[in-house]
Design goal:
The structure is a homodimer.
Chain A (H helix, E strand, L loop, with lengths): L4 E6 L5 H12 L3 E2 L2 H10 L3 H7 L9 H10 L7 H19 L2 E4 L3 H4 L6 E7 L2 H12 L6 H20 L11 E4 H4 L1 H13 L1
Parallel strand pairs in A: 1-3, 1-4, 2-3, 4-5
Helix pairs in contact in A: 1-10, 2-5
Chain lengths: 199, 199
């Protein structure tokens, strides 16, 4: 089936955001990464600030409190605020896919849209040397080493993905195309994705 | 660094062999899959029949006897025949990489050549429906279901890879490019690999 939606999962510092944005520009279709926050806020009634702090990258998404909030939600007959956030995100992503061709970054979109035949699911990764360089250039230094920042983000995304999808993050068979942006270069990644969309 | 060697790891029934062969033809460079058996026989003194039965796909590579043969080899101060086979395979692959541009299928070549900067490491996979169809077309039916044949081969290759590399088979970060041949189609996979080799 002809593909019209692209989901991009990416390691922190792999340049996945820029690659996804360039693909959307070249195809002339909307690009959703942080833009989703506004939509999720409208859908859920939660504040944009809360969503920004607690969506995919939430530092406590793998914490005991988060797990407890998720697991006890059903017990008390109401969804926790985290569950509400995930459900709103799911609804926004499903509605976007229904409405228009687009590129969606992160947020388990590959899993949420797994049953659609019109999606191309992509994973972007790179080795730690490339990621460290990219992180310093894009976000600057912090009091943590880049190795620690990479480890923290990888753990958070892995836990978040595992929690919501019951699949392992970064396993090749979850995606139609996985690319090492450090070795291939960002421009070649863009061209490969466009080639994959041609058919 | 300019790439001149391609390693292709592939799921059984994904068409990885055909894709790798087509890439080698298009690049005009040698292709090594079963051809490696003759070289390994020369290197090791083992018979081609023994190698064919006991290399990568060995039905007992995950068995207790195989594990025992591998683990006790050092204890008694001589390499087991399985270790000898793996060492010969490693030597043949390293020598080929040193000698010429080529495409090498399977046999942990991605791991064996991991420290070279001139290799492009590829993983080809597909969903079970596509693989079943491909297996029946290429190898015909047997007394086992295609689902069982897929499961057996996956387990063997996963165990073999895990045993020799201490890495998990099919994890995207082990490869520079992972492709779903069922969704992308074999010809597009070939073109994507050629594109990745251009830079």
């Amino acid at each position: 089936m002809k593909k019209r939606i692209i989901t991009v999962s990416r390691q922190f510092g792999s340049g996945g955001h820029s690659i996804a944005q360039a693909v959307a520009e070249r195809l002339g279709i909307p690009f959703y990464d942080n833009q989703l926050i506004t939509e999720v806020a409208k859908q859920s009634g939660l504040s944009e600030d809360f969503i920004r702090e607690n969506e995919e990258y939430a530092s406590h998404s793998s914490s005991f409190l988060y797990q407890l909030a998720m697991s006890t939600a059903g017990t008390y007959g109401y969804p926790s605020v985290y569950q509400k956030l995930y459900e709103a995100q799911t609804k926004v992503i499903q509605d976007l896919a229904e409405k228009e061709s687009c590129v969606i970054v992160g947020r388990c979109a590959d899993y949420i849209l797994r049953d659609r035949g019109d999606c191309l699911h992509i994973f972007i990764h790179a080795d730690n040397e490339h990621r460290s360089k990219h992180i310093l250039e894009k976000y600057g230094p912090t009091d943590k080493t880049t190795a620690q920042r990479i480890k923290d983000k990888d753990n958070r995304r892995r836990n978040y993905y595992r929690f919501h999808t019951d699949r392992d993050w970064g396993v090749a068979t979850n995606y139609h195309l996985s690319l090492d942006s450090g070795v291939l270069g960002e421009e070649t990644c863009v061209e490969i994705i466009l080639k994959a969309m041609e058919d």
